[in-house]
Amino acid sequence: MTSTSNNPIFQIEQNYGQSIWMDNLSRTLIESGELKKMIEERGIVGITSNPAIFEKAIVGNATYDTDIEAGIRARKSVLEIYEGLVFDDIRNACDILKPIYESSNKLDGYVSIEVPPTIADDTESTIQEARRYYEQIGRENVMIKIPGTKMGLPAVEQVIADGINVNVTLLFSVDSYVETAWAYIRGLEKRAAEGKDISNIASVASFFLSRIDSNIDDRVDEKLKEGSEDINMEVRLRTIKGKIAIANAKIAYQKYKEIIGSDRWKALVEKGAKVQRLLWASTGTKNPEYSDVMYVDELVGPDTVNTLPPSTIEACADHCSPASRIETGVEEAYNLMETLKEPDIDINLSEVMDELLLDGIDKFVTPFQSLMASLEEKVQKLATV
Predict the structure, then answer these.
(1) CB 244 within 8 A of CB 298
(2) N or C: which end of the chain has fewer CB within 10 A?
(3) Are 243 and 289 in contact (CB under 8 A)?
(4) Which are the contacts of 9, defined by CB distance < 8 A and separation ≥ 6?
């Protein structure tokens, strides 16, 4: 194990103003003491979860059987049993992280849980479920995840106005991030106009990374496969690979700085508002040719969060190279985006982002439905025992 003094994660947090959260949660992690250990030895100061994470945690894991059996005896539906399991895990994780929540002045120590992904296109249902989740979980350091879709953003605005912490997820394009930031601001303004306290509300905007590079790289590989007599074009295509997601994130950070420099934001700060931090998500490197910590090293900077899967946490604790890089190479980032528009490259970034958003919702809906089916199967099996 890397000692805490040599662990780059602690350096990132203490020297550069970025918080490292973990993208993983299970009952085993909580009950084994592993989560506590990750906080103490790896510097983890928050947790994010999603339906895919809970599917892995619950399916084929006997740890949950006693509670499932209790749910069966209480004649609960499969959905109610699922929520009972997950809400308990979220509450327990919130309790473990509560000291961080308090010592960080409510900046960190959050545990995120997503409303059912099947309602991503239903604003009203998203609002109702966010309120219900927040109330039933009953922990002030829970953060409700809402997709940053066209129908999700009005829900974000209302839920923030209700005084509920929100993690806006599935953001790919810079425009979507900007819309998210303004939805947060409108929610705070609405709450402040009602004379309510806005100083205890926290929000993050989860900006996805590796999926962007995977999509762009596939498009580049297709073009390279087609071949070209223009050697220069091949070289330029290769320079795009593995570079777009980080460039996109650096541009989003510039937009963040513009927004917090606005008069509307400054007026809210005077009332105690906390910034909505950009959170780097999907940070496990998918291509083995790239550094396994490139989505950490390249995006260290103040007022940001990076949420890492366990394997990336271990890699970062071992060999991250902390330095504030979020504002280095910004001009190159803008130039790289312009390169995509050139006739011989011709990669439509808007099309890529729309594709990724649809795919992203599906990546949450599919495991959620699969989990419900597996749970139904388990309920039937345990009910006959």
Answers:
(1) no
(2) C
(3) no
(4) 20, 42, 43, 44, 313, 316, 317, 320
Assign residue 146 the CATH number of its domain.
3.20.20.70
| Residue 133 placed within a domain | yes
Task: Write the secondary structure of 308-357 as one string of H (helix), E (strand) and C (coil).
Answer: ECHHHHHHHHHHCCCCCCCCCCHHHHHHHHHHHHCCCCCCCHHHHHHHHH
Q: Is residue 371 part of a domain?
A: yes
Answer whether 0.85 is exceeded by the pTM: yes
Report the alpha-carbon distance of residue 251 to residue 203 in Å, rounded: 20
* Structural contact between residues 139 and 95, judged by C-beta atoms closer than 8 angstroms: yes
Say if 3 falls within a structural domain.
no
DSSP letter, residue 60:
T
Active site residues: 145
- Read off φ and ψ for residue 277, nearest 5 degrees: -80, 145
**Within a domain: residue 218?**
no
Total count of domains within the chain:
1
Both tokens of 8, joined, read 């780059």
Radius of gyration of the chain (CA): 21
CA within 13 Å, CB half, 26: 20
Quick: pLDDT tens for 224-265. Answer: 888 766 777 888 888 899 999 999 999 999 999 999 999 999
| Residue at 112: amino acid letter | S
Q: Residue with structure tokens 């996109």?
A: 248
